[in-house]
UniProtKB/TrEMBL annotation, chain A:
This is AP complex subunit sigma. Gene3D superfamilies: 3.30.450.60. It comes from Zingiber officinale (Ginger). The keyword Translocase does not apply. GO terms for biological process: intracellular protein transport. It is found in: Endomembrane system. Its main location: membrane.
UniProtKB/TrEMBL annotation, chain B:
GO terms for molecular function: clathrin adaptor activity. The lineage of its organism: Eukaryota, Viridiplantae, Streptophyta, Embryophyta, Tracheophyta. Keywords: Coated pit, Endocytosis, Membrane, Protein transport, Transport. It is a peripheral membrane protein. It is found in: Membrane, Coated pit. Residues 787-896 form the Clathrin adaptor alpha/beta/gamma-adaptin appendage Ig-like subdomain domain. GO terms for cellular component: AP-2 adaptor complex. Its main location: membrane. Subunit of the adaptor protein complex 2 (AP-2). Adaptor protein complexes function in protein transport via transport vesicles in different membrane traffic pathways. Adaptor protein complexes are vesicle coat components and appear to be involved in cargo selection and vesicle formation. AP-2 is involved in clathrin-dependent endocytosis in which cargo proteins are incorporated into vesicles surrounded by clathrin (clathrin-coated vesicles, CCVs) which are destined for fusion with the early endosome. The complex binds polyphosphoinositides. This is AP-2 complex subunit alpha.
């Protein structure tokens, strides 16, 4: 029947579209740290610049989506035309928005790397550390992700600038 | 330490944290912002350190989701600070707060460049990172050569080079010309020799972007990538810092394999062998381990390897190995792995189709069908969605029956079985998912149906049991399908007849059954229980319970039954006729029209046969459903959220208004609203061809009527009076009135000829509809009455010889309440009174039920609630009709729920005024305009005008006696897209009207508010009142009550026109 052809046409288009994705694909679109109450603790956007209202709406939607999920469910949520890879540490959710073709598990472990890095710096990092040392959390993230791509995965390299600064002051 | 130095910040953060609720938090934040604003004002005394502290606070407030519209200059200026801590803050906060199009960035482009080419590598890093995050085209042009130099420089340390690589990636995306392909393929190849894994990670991202754009130029890099992968996979020379749970940088491995997937094949046998060895090692060597992180990292690499193997069209052996692995993943309990297994399975499916490699590999996947079906029932929606996609992809003739039936079960199953936490999320996502399931089941059923009757069975079952999730497209498609397959028609009709026996039937099922029986029930006439009369009885039982769109279909069905009523059964005919007669006065126009037409047609005998003959076959076309899956893939959840909302609205909205969204038309502007065809359905209209158009899509039909045949209405003596006035009102406001008037004349000329053709080309042409001689005329000018009511809260809105409509309004912040007083002036009752409010998009309005009859000499009061959502000058229209004797009167009246009603006068001190005034920095927040042609008024009257516009005139602020300072607050409810929390938005707007003492017909108005839209709308609103002082120079929007009167210069003189009216 007619449908068959059309579906395969459709598929081919999807494949072709996927092939040229590289140019505009950002990889990581945003990194969000949100606590159980839905309060944002860290937010960094890489892809498009959102207006404040768009940002609020987006954060509200995805936080609700992720908070509603149980521990037994997978760590990936499809949202609009991208995915959210998320991980929960105590009261804090780490949410990373990525393009659909990004490797989800790699991002999931990247979150953990971020947490371990903060842990190395703060020692037993908790929500309050991030809250009251917002600038340091930003410095670390800045060393790890740039323009939606991973820059550095070595903890000592990531922490080097912060340590340098602490020594200086 | 950086932090201990910023005690103020810590205090602020903990204050915010201790806030009990959002309101407190907002107060605290506002206080802090006020403080910072003041400090920045007196910038002179501010040290870099203090600036740094405030800038962090601003970032914190920004992160909490508050709008911070100042402090950008200060932030950006920190970039030029000499010391590292300040500079760092400047760079980091700038890239959080600003975007690439921000003007402020241009100011610092030189500083940034100096940092990049300077000797201080920490400064270099900061600058490169910021440009890498938010650099735009201008940065690209001026900085690209410097950044390239840093990347390839041998004297630069890795920490700078890795940032240079990603910075260059940004600049390249902004302007691909900055990377010259010829030079770069060699350079890239050298860069890939890099030993430092940090630099390599960054360079790999750059490489992926370059190669995705031009594969040919980078073939020479392919062996390098394989080498890198080998090095990582064999763990050669990997510093421990880059080993993550024993796995050499999983991220670099993944990225490298991603880069390799851009090359279509690998021709060089040595490279190919080397790569396959590595891949084989990954495929075989990844075991499930206990440590979650190690497990995830290993599987991240494994999945990327799988994707690469599939892409490279590997040997069959390796492929089956992959498929076996996928089978394992699909069955595994760990949700992440299962999700990815299903995801990958789908990619594999897609690749199979592309490579025509099909059969045996596909067979292996099919062996896992039952496991995939299990995943379809998983509580996790992410997994279910993947399973659905995979099943959809793998469905073919052999397994279609099983898969479709499984999908069917899934759609049908009790949606409440999953008692997860957030109800709202559950609703939208579940709804979307079920809709998608239904859609895909319908497509597969059609595509792979082993026999046609099975298809009908499946779809009817789907509609019956999961009607809520079946979009209209699905049942349209069934009808098309049945219409085009003659063999199927009796079967489908019989099935439909069976379903109608059921006591509680989903409305979609009623629609499809009624349609099918209308078309094909005569094929069943010999069967028991299928005589026209029995069919009629069972269908008409549904009539009281269905909505308007279904009634329309049922009416068509009755007409068709009537046509097949041979030998004629007068009793049946009488029953059907009585239904038609009953619906002639139904609230919905479409229904009225159908009833009238069918009734008229059915008395014409043979004409009926022609018009109501069976529908012809549909041209073969793409199933609309497939198109829909495409759309669905984009954003199902969002769409469904909207649909749910619209469904909820349907339940209490009035019929006329909710038709529009269904047609997918844009939010209605006022003109569009007035476009409704005027309905004189009492008239025995005769559209001889109309019903052959009776598409299965009732909406199509509705449109054809709107455009085509309205004017066929036989002129009745009564007609609405004020349509033109209403049409012209907004036109006069929005455009130059001059051209509008001649256009109107033309129409009138056209209309004076009896053959006036209906023409829906322009909104003005619609005036034709109303251009019938009127016997009921409004008393006094409606536009004038309206204008007066814009400035006061009670008065007469409309009056004619039968009815008087008075209005009284109360306003409280963004809420308003009107009471409409409908008074019958006659000694006999007014009947069929109908009032419908057509609100503009920015107002929520609810009119309480208007009684159908107004007793003689009585007055009815109808409250009308208004909620203002945002600033706009669009107007609400009241569509009112009533019947007096045989005359039907229909008027459309503008409701004075205008912008200024939501203002509240506010008196403030001079100090406060100037503070606010200065903080509004110019367009679009602050606008200025010189108005000419202002009606000369003494200052005191001007002040009165503003007072009646609900604004406070504040004396003593401006010393110039010719200037007026006016102040008010504007109230609107701004709804957030999802949360639907109600927050009250108090924008204060300051207006200064400065008059030129020598010339009172011109003045300059400057006004500002915190919202650019409000500023603009308010300016226009005031302009309307100043330029055409409503009492004396009404806009030319007066309805031509006597179209017979020759078109004379009278129209150019409002005074004369007015005289004619009175």
């Amino acid at each position: 029947m007619l449908g068959g052809q059309l579906i395969s046409v459709l598929r081919r288009e999807i494949v072709e579209e996927g092939d040229e994705k590289g140019v505009n694909s950002m990889g990581i679109r945003f990194v969000l740290l949100v606590n159980k109450q839905g309060q944002t603790r860290l937010a960094q956007y890489y892809a498009e610049h959102l207006t404040l209202d768009e940002r609020r709406a987006l954060e509200g939607e995805i936080v609700r989506k992720c908070l509603a999920r149980t521990e037994q469910q997978c760590s990936f949520v499809e949202h609009r035309n991208y995915k959210i890879v998320y991980r929960r540490y105590a009261s804090l959710f780490f949410l990373v928005g990525v393009d659909n073709d990004e490797n989800e598990l790699a991002i999931l472990e990247f979150i953990h790397l971020f947490v371990e890095t903060m842990d190395r710096h703060f020692g037993n990092v908790c929500e309050l550390d991030i809250m009251f040392h917002l600038e340091k959390a930003h410095f670390m993230l800045e060393e790890m992700v740039m323009n939606g791509c991973i820059v550095e995965t070595s903890k000592s390299n990531i922490l080097a600038p912060i340590q340098l600064m602490e020594k200086a002051s | 330490m950086a932090l201990s130095g910023m005690r103020g910040l810590s205090v602020f953060i903990s204050d915010v944290r201790n806030c009990q609720n959002k309101e407190q938090e907002r107060l605290r934040v506002d206080k802090e912002l006020g403080n910072i604003r003041t400090r920045f004002k007196n910038e002179k005394g501010l040290s870099h350190y203090e600036k740094k502290k405030y800038v962090w606070k601003i970032l914190y407030v920004h992160m909490l989701g508050y709008d911070v519209d100042f402090g950008h200059t200060e932030t950006v200026s920190l970039i030029s600070a000499p010391k590292y801590p300040e500079k760092q803050v400047g760079y980091i906060v700038t890239s959080c707060l600003l975007n690439e199009n921000h003007d402020f960035l241009r100011i610092v482009i030189n500083t940034v460049r100096n940092d990049i080419i300077g000797r201080n590598e920490t400064f270099q890093c900061l600058a490169l990172t910021m440009v890498g995050n938010i650099g735009g085209k201008e940065f690209s042009e001026s900085l690209a050569p410097d950044v390239q130099k840093l990347l390839v420089s041998s004297s630069c340390r890795p920490l700078v080079r890795k940032k240079a690589a990603l910075c260059l990636l940004r600049l390249y995306r902004k302007n691909p010309d900055v990377v010259n392909i010829d030079g770069w393929s060699d350079r890239m190849s050298q860069l890939l020799d890099e030993r430092d894994l940090g630099v390599l990670t960054a360079v790999m991202s750059l490489f992926v972007a370059l190669v995705s754009n031009n594969i040919e130029a980078y073939w020479n890099c392919l062996p390098k990538c394989v080498k890198i992968l080998e090095r990582l996979a064999r763990n050669q020379d990997i510093p421990p810092e880059y080993t993550y749970y024993g796995i050499p940088s999983p991220w670099l491995q993944v990225k490298t394999m991603r880069a390799l997937q851009y090359f279509p094949t690998i021709e060089d046998p040595n490279t190919r062998r080397a790569l396959f060895e590595v891949l084989q090692r990954i495929l075989m060597g990844t075991d499930v381990v206990k440590n979650v992180n190690k497990n995830n990292a290993a599987h991240a690499v494994l999945f990327e390897a799988l994707a690469l193997v599939m892409h490279l069209d590997a040997e069959k052996e390796m492929m089956s190995q992959c498929v076996a692995l996928l089978g394992k993943f699909i069955a595994v309990r760990e949700p992440n792995i299962r999700y990815l297994g299903l995801y990958c399975g789908n990619c594999l499916e897609e690749n199979m189709t592309r490579m025509l490699l099909v059969s045996d590999v596909q067979d292996i996947i099919k062996r896992h069908q039952s496991q995939i079906i299990t995943s379809l029932k998983d509580p996790d929606i992410s997994i279910r969605r993947r399973a659905l996609d995979l099943l959809y992809g793998m469905c073919d003739v052999t397994n279609a029956k099983d898969i479709v039936e499984e999908l069917l079960q899934e759609v049908i199953c009790d949606p409440h079985k999953l008692s997860t936490i957030s109800l709202q999320y559950l609703n939208t996502a579940e709804f979307a998912m079920r809709e998608e399931l239904a859609l895909k089941a319908a497509i597969l059923a059609e595509k792979f149906a082993p026999d046609l009757s099975w298809y009908v069975d499946v779809i009817l079952q789907l509609i019956d049991k999961a009607g809520d999730f079946v979009s209209d497209d699905i049942w349209y498609r069934v009808v098309q399908f049945v219409t085009n397959n003659e063999d199927l028609q009796p079967y489908a009709a019989a099935k439909a007849r069976e379903y109608l026996e059921k006591p509680a039937l989903h409305e979609t099922m009623v629609k499809v059954s009624a349609y099918l029986l209308g078309e094909y029930s005569h094929l069943l006439a010999q069967r028991p229980g299928c005589s026209p009369k029995e069919i009629f009885t069972i269908i008409s039982e549904k009539l009281p319970t269905v909505t308007t769109s279904t009634i329309a279909i049922l009416l068509s069905t009755f007409a068709k039954i009537l046509m097949h009523n041979h030998p004629s059964d007068p009793q049946l005919q009488e029953q059907i006729w009585s239904i038609f007669r009953k619906y002639e006065s139904y609230i919905d126009v479409e229904i009225q029209q159908r009833s009238v037409e069918y009734f008229a047609l059915s008395r014409k005998g043979t004409a009926l046969m022609d018009v109501l003959a069976e529908m012809p076959k549909f041209p073969e076309r793409q199933s609309a459903l497939i198109k829909k899956t495409e759309d669905a893939e984009v954003d199902t959840a969002e769409q469904s959220a909207i649909r749910i909302r619209s469904l909820q609205q349907t339940s209490n909205a009035l019929v006329v208004t909710d038709q529009r969204p269904a047609n997918g038309s844009v939010p209605v502007s006022q003109l569009a609203l007035v476009r409704m065809p005027s309905q004189n359905m009492e008239a025995s209209s005769t559209h001889d061809q109309a019903t052959s158009q009776d598409q299965i899509n009732p909406q199509d039909r509705e449109f054809s009527h709107q455009n085509g045949s309205v004017t066929a209405v036989v002129p009745q003596e009564v007609h609405p009076a004020d349509l033109l006035g209403d049409l012209l009102g907004p036109l006069a406001i929005e455009g130059p009135p001059a051209p509008a008037v001649p256009a109107e004349h033309k129409d009138q000329n056209l209309l004076s000829t009896p053959e006036a053709t209906p023409d829906a080309a322009g909104p003005l042409a619609l005036a034709t509809v109303d251009d019938q001689p009127n016997s009921v005329q409004p008393i006094a000018n409606i536009a004038e009455r309206f204008n007066a009511l814009c400035l006061k809260d009670s008065g007469v809105l409309y009056e004619d010889s039968h009815i008087q409509i008075g209005i009284k309004a109360e306003w409280r912040s963004h809420h308003g309440r009107f009471v409409l007083f409908l008074g019958n002036k006659n000694t006999s009752p007014l009947v069929s009174v109908q009032a419908v409010i057509l609100p503009p998009t920015h107002l929520k309005m609810e009119l309480s039920l208007v009684p159908e009859t107004i007793p003689p000499r009585a007055q009815v009061q109808c409250p009308l609630e208004v909620v203002n959502l945002r600033a706009s000058r669009d107007l609400a229209v009241l569509d009112l009709s009533y019947k007096f004797g045989t005359a039907v009167v229909n008027v459309k009246l503008r409701i004075p729920a205008v912008l200024n009603k939501f203002l509240q006068p506010l008196s403030i001190s001079a100090e406060e005024f100037f503070l606010q005034w200065k903080s509004l920095s110019g367009p679009p927040l602050k606008l200025q305009e010189v108005l000419r042609g202002v009606k000369p008024l003494p200052l005191s009257e001007l002040a009165n005008l503003f007072t009646s516009l609900r604004m406070a005139v504040i004396p003593g602020i401006d010393t110039n006696p010719n200037n007026l300072i006016i102040c008010a607050t504007f109230h609107s409810e701004s709804t957030r897209a999802m949360l639907c929390l109600v927050s009250i938005n108090l924008c204060s707007s300051d207006i200064r009207v400065e008059t030129d003492p020598t010339d009172r017909t011109q003045l300059r108005i400057t006004l500002g508010s915190g919202d650019p839209i409000l500023t603009f709308e308010l300016k226009e609103c005031i302009k309307e009142h100043l330029v055409s002082i409503p009492m004396q120079a009404p806009t030319p929007g007066i309805s031509p009550i006597q179209p017979q009167s020759p078109v004379t210069p009278a129209y150019n003189d409002p005074g004369a026109m007015l005289a004619g009216l009175l």
